[in-house]
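Entry 12.
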Amino acid sequence: KQTVLAGIRNLAASGSTCSVGDLPDEIIYGRTYYKYSLNVSNTEEWPVTVGIDGTAVRDGKVRKCSADAAVSVSNTHIADAVLYADRDSVQLQLPDLCRDVFTISPQHIGKKFNTSQLAFMTGTELDDFSLELFQQGTAEENDRDTDLKGLSDRIAGGMNVGGKTDKRDGLKIYSVTMNDDAWKAVNELCGLEQKKASPEETYGLTFSKPSGDIQIAMKGRTVRQIALPAVRVSDTDGYTCDISGLSAGFDGSGCKLDTDGLTVRYKDGKVCKITGSVSVRRATDSEKTECPDGSRVSLFDLDIPEIYAYEDRFESASGLIREMMR
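Predicted 3D structure (tokens):
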């Protein structure tokens, strides 16, 4: 038990040997690189599997981020996408279909959309919202080390570590259960990280207590993988997310999340299932945020003839999608 608890504390400690203890601060304030491969299915609007694969770089210091994605439907490539964002704008380009770069302001998106010709043509109205993409201040100004230590002590103290259940690839596998107070501390810890990421927002995310044992794989006194049993995430707005087969791997430079079953249920009862993986680590000097080249087009300022012109240019891709959905 002491070996596992020491490994958990090392994982949570800034400057740990796994180099992921300060990863939340790196993600919020530093420069991080992401690689993802996701499949989205089981939605009523999309009765096919949509694949999204790509990379992203986020620089919290200069408050810029960029991403690229390859979008496919039923294993057929549809289009590439390039996204760029800073504090003033969000920019999207679909280079296979159009060289223009569509831009919007991240503030009051719903309100601006509702007064646009896009809303008129689609008959759609959105609730107003803004994208808070970057944290204000610095890690030092928003430090919560004292709170984190108290919560990590509660989590560690509420763990019951069973005997070694397996050995695999040089790793020792332990089964761990957590009492109610430890799991409450997990939720409080998640709340702190959410608040750190965006202090002005009110969060209501809660994680249900796992239905079974947590599996922790260790090499010596270092945690290499954590596998969770089924767990439900819910918020105060009525959304729920059931997660099964979720594991986090730590390799000394970052972490990788894998899931074979993440099911999102919306308030209206619709369901979306996501499988795949996301890895995150510190970005290297050569991995930088990049702004796409092309003429800027303000998406919400387009008039109806301009919208029809773009619709004609995208017709080949939309026709292919409709054909595959039959």
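Annotation: The longest strand covers residues 254-265. The chain has eight helices and 17 strands.
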